[in-house]
Specification:
With about 190 residues, the protein is an alpha+beta fold. It has a single domain, classed as Thiol Ester Dehydrase, Chain A (Roll), CATH 3.10.129.10. The chain is about 30% helix and about 30% strand. Strands 2-4-5-6-3 form a five-stranded antiparallel sheet. A two-stranded parallel sheet has the order 1-7. Strand 5 and strand 6 form a beta hairpin. The longest helix has 30 residues.
Length: about 190
């Protein structure tokens, strides 16, 4: 059977939503959870369009809120499939907030959602390959590979740190930190 490939452009997805007062926190800014939910929706739509089937979120990388989003802003979420594995897809999402009155558009965050395609029985499904149409598509694909390598290195290093951590040796590192060790804490 010949492998199927789909171009990046066929699954590019944009979701735009008006930020209403019920989305705001006590500080009058939009809850981060609202934005995460919208990002998950656009990631699903983008991944499902490419895979041609149901997809689930398995990880989210790099959710840094660069600027607050205000009530009354239009939030634009632009998503594209940046990388595919055998059953997984990495969806890159760029989030911007537009002030309708002034027309000013601010970049609020970029994030990467890893999605996995599912068969009707719940098993993982093979996804089509990805046709890279532009230099940006190639760059994004290569960046996704690099992020995956760095993530694996980080996990490995973190596992090593956890297994080799010697509290007594590292106690001096707490000297300039904003913490205090309660009496008997090291004996519990």
């Amino acid at each position: 059977m010949d492998e199927v490939y789909k171009p990046v452009s066929t699954s590019r997805t944009t979701l735009t939503e008006l930020m209403i007062p019920s989305y705001a926190n006590f500080g009058g800014k939009i809850h981060g959870g609202i934005l995460l939910s919208l990002m998950d929706k656009v990631a699903y739509a983008c991944a499902a369009k490419h895979a041609g089937r149901y997809c689930v979120t398995v990880s989210v990388d790099g959710v840094d809120f660069l600027q607050p989003v205000e009530v009354g802003n239009l939030v634009h979420l632009q998503a594209s499939v940046n990388h595919v594995g055998r059953t997984s897809l990495v969806v890159g999402i760029r989030v911007t907030a537009e002030n309708i009155s002034t027309g000013v558009i601010r970049h609020t965050n970029t994030s990467y959602f890893t999605m996995v395609a599912k068969n009707e029985d719940g098993s993982n499904a093979v996804v089509p390959g990805l046709q890279l149409e532009t230099r940006d598509d190639v760059r994004r694909f290569l960046e996704a590979i690099k992020r995956k390598e760095l993530k694996q290195t980080y996990r490995s290093e973190l596992d090593n740190v956890k297994t080799q951590l010697e509290i007594e040796v590292d106690l001096p590192k707490l000297t300039d930190e904003r913490c205090e060790i309660l009496a008997n804490a090291l004996n519990r």
